[in-house]
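Entry 14: structure prediction run for HTH-type transcriptional regulator TtuA. Input pasted below.
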Amino acid sequence: MLDLRRLRYLVAIADCGSMSAAARQLGIAQPALSHHITELERLVGFPVLHRLARGVKATEKGEVLLSHAREITEKVRQAEAEIRAIAYLDERVIRLSLIPSWATAFAPSIISEVAASMPKVSLRLIEARNDESLRLIRLGKVDMAVALVGAEEKVDDLIVKESLFAVSSRPLGRSMPLEAAAKLNLILPPRDNPLRASIDEAATRAGINLNVTMEIDGQDTIKRAVGAGIGATILSWNSVQQEHEAGQLQAAHIVDPVIYRSIHLLKGREVDERTFRLFRDLLRSVARREPSFNP
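Run finished. Output tokens:
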């Protein structure tokens, strides 16, 4: 019954406020545009436009149709944009940098998802520490980077917020209040590290002082120190899942309040917005369905 082209014409007329202006915008003759609107009115069974002395205005019933027309044409526009993006991605190499915890937890799923939804894309994964990922994206050495981002960095888009865990070589229970976790002999990254910034900010908001006994710049070294019984730390689940499942480290979900680290997808200079959105949505989907995200 409804014709997409005529719905687009109706939206253009409403936006322009006159038949003549809409005809110029659409690149068609005004009599032809008027004919299409007349046919649309015949099909729906009621006038959709008031013809005024100067311009046109949607009728009350026409406003209902116009609302649907806007929604339909926008959905079609989005679908066309995504299809163009997929076509653009054909036979293209995409270089994606992952922080180590993400490479461990999600790389197989990311590879499978890209292969299924973008079969002609050649995906090149680079595992890199957070500071190295930021450097690679700045230098144009990767197209996109999954990373933790500090306040001074430009944030393109959030992928997911991961809740944090107290980690120790000793039993901790399934959960632990932040106040109790703060009293552990904590080994944390330096203050300029985005994870540390998230932990410090949460503690400050809660009015809690952290018992930081040592700072180490390196997640693997922190985990080895914790495993040796030197202290405890605070990490995301996917940063410690392997060691926890192997019985090497214990992890307790921090509650009262729950605290998070934010994982973002950074976009390189040469990546178009459609490609970026496709990968952002794919990564969001992978992160939110993996059991390692929410144990």
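Notes: The two ends are 50 Å apart (CA to CA). Will compare against the previous run tomorrow.
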